Amino acid sequence: MRDLKRLQYFEDLLQSANNDLVREAKAQGRICAAYLCENTPEPLFNLGNCFGVRLFAPNTGSMDIATYYMTNLLCETVRAILERAVEGGYNFADCLIAPDGCTMMNRCAENMELLHAMEGNEKFFYEHMEIPFKADDNGAELMALQCRNHILKPLSEVYGIDVSDEAIRKAVAVHNRVCGLIRALGEFRKEEKPRITGYEFAVLTLATYVCPKDLLIEKLEETLEEVKTREPDDKKYRARLVVVGSEMDDVEYIRLIEECGAYVCADRYCFGSFPGRDPIVLTEDRDALTQVCEHYVYHGQCPRQMNMEKVYGRKEYVAKLAKEFRADGVIYNQVKFCDPWAYERLTGTTALREDFGYPVLSVDRPYNIRSSEGQMRTRVQAFIESIEIKKLQK
To answer: What does pLDDT average to over the chain?
Structure first.
């Protein structure tokens, strides 16, 4: 297929947390709210003159400083982010809002605060949120309370951001517009001869997390129109795979899988489109904040949620994606030393194999896939070959 006209543009945005669109928004005098974790409601960072950016650390190399403060037994994602913060890579941010998604994320945010690693202006503030373990009414109430106290209140008091119900509804409308574009692009992955690669889709989706959303819409719309008339390659992929797992902001991992001859037809990982790009449905009879928080609590697929219906539901969710996108197998992955996803990977791998009958490759991977590219390529190639053998046997 011909390269997407804007692919290089989107790829360049992923080379730095302080990318061109972040700098453009800052030059306009807008406030940047940096945040961690998929469990924090994104629209609440995009109110009024504020825009949200989820922190990531592209092109990570050494993590020696972060390892000194956090030991080498903690998740590579949070160590990479702390390392980048100490290097000054996030000094464009005007605040950091961190939920207790896991203990390691807490340690990361606490070290940033203790080391004054992100204080780019004199008004900079840190907020630490408590988020629920269960998807129920109490959990939704807790989420709403925490969002009021640790997102809306400080943004309003420190930077004068409009946090009204009307402002939240406007932010949700922009959020839904971006989600609709990503969903429309993702639908092409269901085709027998897809008009968009899994790598291209991963690039576009990741950009929506790390850039001001409103500044992306025009380029996403243009790309969607381009894909609609794009001529697909006349080739058959060796296998169609769903990639499932923890924090995954390294699109090179998806490229590696597809270079082995597979097609990544669906994604269920942090920074992915499922469920992160589900539209948020609001009604007029209840306040917007409550409905946004309910959406994140009830639609979330994070292993932090430990009520049994969510534990079993996460495996059913992956199986449903695999069926919908006609996948031949599933790659369950976790970033190295991620505790919540270590347990989820074990139970998920077992359930998808035994209860749903899908071949599963279970791996832990480094934050930057380039550090073990050869080993991962070998494992993916062997997995694809095993799927091909099973097809022949049938």
So the answer is: 96
CA distances from 172 to 219, 335, 351, 369 (A): 19, 30, 35, 34
**Can you give the pLDDT at residue 1?**
81
Cα–Cα distance measured from residue 205 to residue 210, given in angstroms and rounded to the nearest whole number: 9
Q: For residues 271 and 98, what is the distance between their CA atoms, to the nearest angstrom? A: 16
Sheet strands (E) in the chain = 31-35, 50-54, 95-99, 125-129, 239-245, 262-269, 329-335, 360-365
Q: What is the DSSP string of 326-385?
A: T-SEEEEEEETT-HHHHHHHHHHHHHHHHTT---EEEEEE-SSGGGGHHHHHHHHHHHHH
89-133: pLDDT as tens digits: 999 999 999 999 898 999 999 999 999 999 888 999 999 999 999
Question: pLDDT at residue 385 above 80?
Answer: yes
Inter-CA distances, 27 with 52, 151, 217, Å: 15, 23, 19
pLDDT band at 140 (very low <50, low <70, confident <90, very high): very high
The enclosing H or E element of 80 equals helix 76-86
Phi, psi angle pair for 255, to nearest 5°: -60, -45
Instruction: Check residue 149 and report its DSSP letter.
Output: I
CA atoms of 162 and 147, how far apart (whole Å): 14
Contact 241, 264 (CB under 8 A): yes
How far apart, in Å, are the Cα atoms of 312 and each of 289, 308, 351? 28, 6, 9
User: Are 277 and 178 a contacting pair, CB within 8 Å?
Assistant: yes
Cross-strand bridge partners of residue 51 = 32
